[in-house]
Structure formats: structure tokens, C-alpha cells
Amino acid sequence: MPALQNDTLIRALLRQPTPYTPVWLMRQAGRYLPEYRATRQRAGSFLALAKSPTLATEVTLQPLERYRLDAAILFSDILTVPDAMGLGLYFADGEGPRFHNPVRDAASVAKLFVPDPSRELRYVIDAVSEIRRALNNRVPLIGFSGSPYTLACYMVEGGGSEDFRTIKTMLYSEPALLHRILEINARAVIDYLNAQIEAGAQAVMIFDTWGGNLSHAAFREFSLAYTRRVLAGLKREHDGVRIPSIVFTKGGGLWLSDIAASGSDAVGLDWTMSLGDARKLVKDQVALQGNMDPMALFASTDAVRTEVARVLADFGAGPGHVFNLGHGISQFTPPDSVAALVDAVHALSPAYHDGDSVPR
Ligand code: CP3
To answer: What is the pTM of this model?
Structure first.
């Protein structure tokens, strides 16, 4: 297996020395790019795009053609897994994702099953292989999944939600039912991520987008316990190469110590927490990924540069930082702001890595 030309992401996730801080952006392939909108239009819909390995490969590579990003992320969606379980994913215009068959009672829970990635999710696994071929070892490919709890939010609510009333009603009144869903989801996510790793994903990320909406106690019982189970089931190596893992709980800053102890190599942070404080808390347990406010990209390119400098300084000197936004990039972001961000990370970060090439 030929070596990666740019392995800064993998090294940073493993807290190894790098000459600069690697950068990629959550939702880097998406609607803020006119070329994405053009491919999506050709595909007919977001789902048609995500279900075509060739088109998914095309849009995965689009941001890398424009910007000197240090990683590619599989173009897909976390909701492919519940879709494969037979919930019937669709996107109503302007309403975001929805399911035809939400899971709200014992009868619908009994029908859930762990999808076979080589069957129901074949199109994702094929996309991973095709993207790896197209990348030709330029940068690593990140695979991903939703966390068991975040997937359950969509499965029980039947789509997005303002207050998560349906799933929280289940959590407080029928906790055993929710635990059954989470157990199936955890097994599904393990199989799905391991299949992505076998097909060529070189790092994996678990998106716990909604874990932050839980109470302190419920977060541990219904989100973190299952994320931990997923991490314990992941392949740590493929073809003799380490596959680092990243866990991102939006709104999880208060629980960072517990998240950092859950078994991942890196923890993603949203913009509400100081990277410097986070680093003091996690010490050398995990690498940190983040955490610029995505809305800073609506300011001038000078302001973007200033904010990049502040985030880099907040983490400080030494290895173990992957630059990213604190959440997905907005579809309204000016593409030139992204260029300013990526260039600023590459220009300003070497100052924080002086001596990193010296083994410690
Ligand atoms: O980061 C990337 O570039 C990879 C692609 C990616 C998408 N979704 C593509 C997408 C990733 C990693 C995701 C993850 C995802 N999907 C999450 C977790 C991360 C997060 O943002 O918190 C969640 C919660 C979803 C569910 C989802 N998918 C929602 C809520 C929506 C609609 C809202 C929106 O932003 O449009 C989607 C659709 C979706 N997934 C789009 C893209 C590019 C937009 C679809 C379109 O083209 O219209």
C-alpha cells in the first residue's frame, strides 16, 4: 500500500509531530460551492447524489480542487443507516430530512435490524473505494457515522426537531425501548464504520450532533455509553496502519473529560469552549479538533484571518490539533472566506510547530 503524500491529519489525530496544523471543514463538500449545486442538479436530488458512488466521488473531491485541504470526507449522510433499516428517508423541500416510518413503539422497534453494509449500504462502501482510487493517496479519506443517540433522534422524531419532545418522552417514560433502539444502532454503526475502514476510510468520525441536548445523567446513559460501545467495536488498524477515530458531541464541552475517556483518539469541539482550557483538561489523552465559529466566515477575509490566528493561539504550541469549524459550514458561506481560512491555517500554524519534527 503506497504511503499517503500528506499524512498531517493522521499524525495530528495521533498527537504526533507535524510541520503545520492540518485543516478540513465539516460539510466541506456542500451547497456553499456552486460546483456542488451543479452536480446536485444533474443528480436530481441530494439522495440521488449520495446514492451514486461516481457522483459522490465527484463532490467529495470538489473542495480539494479549490482549497489546500488536508483531508477529504466521504460525501454521504448520517441518515443512510436508518434509511437502510427501512425507515424510508426523504427530503421534503425546505424542511430537511424526514422518515416515512418513524420508530415510536414496541412494534416498530421489533422490526428494526442491523443492516449489512455490503447489501443495504453497498452504495456507501462503493463510494469509499471509488473516492480512495480518485484521491490517489493525496490526502486521507475520513469516513463517518452518526452516533447511536443522534441517529435515534431522527428515527424517533421522524426528522429534525426543535425540542426533541418525542424521543425525550420515550427516554423518560419507556427507557428500555430507547435502549433497545440504541443497542441496534450501536451494532449497525460498528458494522458500518468497519466496512468503511475495510473499503479504505483512513480515519473515522462519529457525529453526536444532538447529544448536547440531554441532561448530564441522560447524556451518559443514552449517548456516551453507546458511543463508547461503538469505539470498542471499531477496527483500530487496517493493512497494518492505525485508523484514528474522532468523536464530536455538539454542546458537549461541559462533559469533555468523560468524552475524552471514551476511547477515541480525538475529540471534536464546538465553538463554545476554549481549546486551551480543553487541552489542559484532556492533557495527552486525545487530540482536539475544531473549533472556529462557522459564522465568522461571514466577516471580512481580514477578520477570518484574525479568528484563525486566535483559534491557533488558543490551542497553542505542539502537536494534537486539527483545525476545523465548531460545526458544519453554512450553505450561505462565501467560498472566498474558506480560501482565506485554509490559507491562514497553513501560513500561521507552522509557528506553533517549531521543533515538532524533533522526536520527544
Ligand atoms: O462533511 C461533508 O462534507 C460530508 C458530507 C455530510 C453530509 N451530511 C452531507 C449533506 C456529512 C458528514 C453529514 C452529516 C450529517 N447529516 C449530520 C451530522 C453533522 C452535523 O451537521 O451535525 C447530520 C445531523 C445530518 C442530517 C442532515 N442531512 C440534515 C439535518 C440535513 C439537512 C440540513 C442541511 O444542512 O441541509 C442533511 C442534508 C445534507 N447532508 C446536505 C449535505 C451536503 C444538504 C443537502 C442538499 O444538497 O440539499
So the answer is: 0.97
